[in-house]
Amino acid sequence: MKDQEIHKQRFINFAETECKGNSTLYYKLSLQIAKDPELLDIAAAARQGQPIPNIFFAAVHYLLLKTGGAELAKYYPSITQNDIDEIPFDLFKEFCLDKANEIRKLVSSRIVQTNVISRCSYLMPIFSEIIASEGRPTTIIDIGTSAGLTLNFDKYEYWYNGIKVFGDSNVHIKSSTIGSPVPKIYPITQPIRKIGLDQHLVNPSDKDETLWLKALVWPDQLERFTALDQALKLDELKNINFRQAESVMDFEREILNVDKKQALIVYATHVLYQFTHEQMNAFYAMLCRVGEVRDFYFLSVEGIKLLLERYRSNKTVIELTKFKDRHETKTMLAETNGHGNWTTWKDVE
C-alpha cells in the first residue's frame, strides 16, 4: 500500500509539474491513473530508477504505434494527426488491462531515453558561443546520448517566438523566450568532433528502437514527431562516435582520451536525475578530477534538488561549469522546462 501511495504521488507530480501547460492529454490521464489501483499496479513493474509515468505512457504509446488498430488509437493525435484534448479514461484503462502483460514487460525491460531535440534551442546558442570564443577545434561529449540527435545541434534550423533566427534545415527547432531577449547564435567555423555516451545506445537505423524513441514523445506534441522523423534521416548521424559507457569510470576514460589541444564541452540533459545519490557524487567528483588535468566546460540541464536549491529555482536549471587552470566557475545561464520549448535567459556578466 505504501508503494502504491508513492506511485500515486508520482503521477500527480508528473501531471502538475511536467504535463500542465504542455500536454492536456497526459495531464488528465495522469490524474486519473493516480486514482486507479489497477493501473498503478501495472506501472509499478518499472525498473528501479526509471520515471514511472514516462515509461508507462511510452509503453502504451509504443503498442498503439506498433499495431495502430486498437480503438484507443483513434484518440492519439500522433496516429490520427487530429487535434484531440482528451482520451476516454474507460477506453484507456480497458486497453491497459487487456495488454497488461505486454506493458509490464516493456516497463520492466526498457528505459526512458528521450531524444528531445527541441532542447537544442538552448544548446545551440551556448555551444556556438563557446566554440566561437575558443576559436579552435572542439570535441563535444553527450552523456546519456540515446540516438545522438542533440549532438547534431549545428545541423538544424532555429525559430524563436515564431521568427526564423538561424540555419537552413528540414529539422525545425521552435522555442520561445520568456522575459529575456532571443539568444544570439554564432556561426560555427571550427571542426567539431562529436561523441555520444550511453549505457544503452539507440541505433537510429533500427526500426524497433526508433519506434520506442517515438513512443516516448507525447502524442499531442506533433511538431516533436515531425522534428524527430527529420532528424533521424540526416546523414550526419553517421559522423557521431557512439561509445557504450555504463559507469562514471567509463565516462572519465572517454573524457580523458580527448586531445588537450582541442576545446572540450561535456553535457548532460535530464540524465543526472536518474542517478542515485552515490552515483551523482561520484560523477561530480570525476568532473573535478578531470578539471585538475585539463580545461573543459560542463553543461548541466536538470531539475535535480542540488541545482534547484543552489539557485532557488523551481524550474529546470541550465548551469555551465567552466574548469580553467584548475579553477571551477559555476554560472546559471537560464531556466527552461523539460522539452526546451521555452527558456528564460539570465543576465550573465
Automatic annotation (TrEMBL):
For this protein, the record's InterPro entries field holds: UCP012608
Protein name as catalogued: DUF2332 domain-containing protein
Taxonomic placement: Bacteria, Pseudomonadati, Bacteroidota, Chitinophagia, Chitinophagales
